[in-house]
Design goal:
Protein name: Glycosyl transferase
Radius of gyration: 28 Å
Number of helices: 20
GO molecular function: pentosyltransferase activity
Main location: membrane
Membrane topology: Multi-pass membrane protein
Distance between the termini: 96 Å
Structural class: mainly alpha
Helix content: 55-70%
Strand order of the largest sheet: 4-3-5-7-6
Organism: Phaeodactylibacter luteus
Amino acid sequence: MQRYSGALRFFLYFWARKSNAIQLGININRYRKALYFLALALLAPALLINLGLLTLIDDEALRAWVALEMQLSDNYIAPMLHGDFYYKKPPVYNWMLLGVFSLTGEMDEWSIRIPTVAFLLVYISTIYYFARQHFSRDLAALSALAFLTCGRILFYDSFLGLIDISYSWLTFLSFMLFFHLSEKGRWAQAFGWSYALAAVGFLMKGLPAVVFQGATVLGWLAYRREWYRLFRWPHLLGGLIFLAITGAYYAAYVQYNSLDALAQVLLNESAKRTAGRYPFWFTVLHLLTYPFELLVYHFMPWGLLAVFLLKRGAWAKIWQHRFTAFAMLVFLLNIIVYWTAPKVHPRYVFMLIPLLFMVLLYLYNEYTEEATWQKQVIDMVLLGCCLVLPLAALAPLFLSRLSGTPWLWPKTLLIFALLSGLAYGAWRFREARLLTVAVALLAVRLAFNWFVLPDRDANDFGNDARLDAIRVARAYEGKDLRMFAQSEWQPMTSFQMTLERGAVIPVDYGPIDTSAYYVIDPQAYPSLEYETDGTLQMRHGKKVYRIVRFKAPIPKTAIPEPVEYD
């Protein structure tokens, strides 16, 4: 009887363990579903609340300004600024903006930024779609959420009306189509689609599109040991498609302007950040710090997963999986260009970051069952962050500068409750910790929208400059207003003045007309005599320009070179 009693106790113990495991499994599945639901619920408010609040930064204003002058001049082919030809970027993104302005009927901050949100949503959907071809649903979803919630995207570029997210999506799509179509042996489509997208990318941002396409095609064919495909008709067809698309645009462009200056500026734009333009030690420092700047700063927290690359056998796992091999190869070949180029913006590599994240998340998933030091470090760091966030969420209640925030207590307590629940989930369900972190970051972005953006707007000198630009435009409505010679223009001010006037403010290099009003930088032209009629507050350097009329005509040859000053 004692023997059967022992067997019974063993059976009951085993069944209890099994039941707990089953129950835990059910809880994890339900928890994951709840996380996906919460992520979808947070997505719209996280990306849209206060989207149009902040004054445009210069790069945003520049794109909108080009589009505005296209509309005002009825010239949609040759971009211009202050009525002068603008060469640094081809016009495709400006056409997109004009389409949005036409749909919304507005040319304001929200309309300028909403394309970024739309393309970001399309981008993460594209990441999920292609990752799902090779990974589980959870890993594919996490790949998309990792890109969305990395620091640089979620807390900066996702609420700015810049070209880079749309361009990066286009380039990433080109990578994915080239890989998947080539793997199916459909080489004509692989080359055709990738070169067509590269051509559109070229008409958005210039030569970087050629570099991405060239490095990807050459690298993948070399990896496959299929160099001969460069000389087969499918590749030649792709090249012809690229030339046809870009050639059609430039055939139209020459009807407005010569290609000589355009080609020179496009080449200079691509070369100005290369290592040869900077001191040797500056370049060496960049080579040493760039990986840490990229992974440990701009693309936190997911960049921390790069520690898995230090594990023995990790690289072998990458190369054994066809998709991760392609992703890592394309990342490495293209990141070299930026690794060796000082003073590059993180947004220049947005098309490469999802490739890296997919590889790193794949490694994390592969080592889930192993107690590696890499996994333990990542899990502890992420759990620590989740546990700290609820306390940080209470900070607005104790900051005097936020005391005037509408609905301060309800907003704070809602964020606190969300982050507290997610902190518990991160501790309780280790298997879903990464997904929990992604959703927690969306909740933090919601708090950022409610508390940080209004405070930043209230203390932004750029808003004062914007209002002054509007004031000057109204004061000189109907008058002949021009920019004087080489007085440095600042895009936000020029865009707001042009928008308010509803007319191009031309730059005048001479001869100078005594009947016109000129916006002049007095420090750049201290020797000129004129009558001051008004002032214009500039954003950068807090410079104050003058609105003047000249006492006597000035021939073009008599206009002095501007004086350089700090």
